[in-house]
Amino acid sequence: MSVVTIERKVLEKNDELALQNRKVFQQHGLFVVNMVSSPGSGKTSILERTLEHVKNKIRVAVIEGDVQTDFDAQRVATFGVPVVQILTNGGCHLDAKLVQDALSHIDLKGVQLLVIENVGNLVCPANYDLGEHVKVVVASTTEGDDKPLKYPAMFRNASVLLINKIDLLPYVNCNLAELKTNAFKINPKLNVFETSCTTLEGIAEWCHWLEKQVSGK
Amino acid sequence: MSVVTIERKVLEKNDELALQNRKVFQQHGLFVVNMVSSPGSGKTSILERTLEHVKNKIRVAVIEGDVQTDFDAQRVATFGVPVVQILTNGGCHLDAKLVQDALSHIDLKGVQLLVIENVGNLVCPANYDLGEHVKVVVASTTEGDDKPLKYPAMFRNASVLLINKIDLLPYVNCNLAELKTNAFKINPKLNVFETSCTTLEGIAEWCHWLEKQVSGK
After folding, report:
1. Which residues of chain A are within 8 Å of residue B74 when distances are taken between CB atoms?
2. Cβ-count burial B52-62 (b if 16+ within 10 Å, e if not)
């Protein structure tokens, strides 16, 4: 069976296009974040809280990736930022080509931060470079503390881990120390923030980190 | 690009092997469940509670699918049932071939129910028939109420929806009625159970349904 070879070719082609995206981002002095997680970990909620926090400091644009529906793009659009929806129609991840196509629908002039919200999937998006500067993986406390070990590629390839729904810790079977230990086992360089979109815990710290990256461009 | 054609060939080959698996299951009078969900929705916890509930009534075997680690297989093995671990090593779903290989490691004689716990992924496993009788999709309340619309293929192909972590409803942003409405929009034939592995709510009802399917074989 030649599937492995084909997969390699697909990834090589993707890497070429990601390089092209990277050059576009560089030309515009953009900082680009690829947000990844399981379905329902709170990527869109974190993005909403982030937009509230940085909207007077940073000019942001958003690319929303979904299998179906434009619910997330609608939520983000209420913050008055440019947003483009990519529908994968069953596809399990964004790739560099889809992002390239989406970029042609955004006026990047003046934009400082581009957030790409990937399809909710803790496996496939790990392998597809979109040209981003950092992958930010969101893992919610409700998912338990073993996910970094069970889905290592995503945590290995990420620069930031947002441990979300931290307010639900008293109610769920998740040992926070164990979750962090497991994450650092896979990737000792992870920047970790504990966040809640309900209590806003950790949102300012995460946004401060993000602002520093943007101003460093 | 010929990826679509190749994907179709992969799926056709998978369907052939699923048919072979189905014949094996039929020969042994087995009822076979394919459990699917996002990472951390509680598939393994539900399986544990199910095994506790049915262990004196039904002879069960389990195939555990994971990207990495045999944590889930270890958890299930403590219930004294035969269990085989499949590691996909980065692969995002089980397929009929992996299940066929796993079957060669289980003595199916006398087994009445085979539970296959798929990789945590709400996208890719929807398309891969393993030869099972039913797909059971687990969606936890912590993931919100929009998931059936955002990941429709999985809910369309499932026969049962377990709405899990129902005990966390007071703490999370999930409208239970809306979640059910969304699920029935995608698949009006879904059998829905509301479950909690903490309070055991709904576990008896779900097990009763399962026992009926097994005795109907």
Report:
1. none
2. ebbeeebbbbb
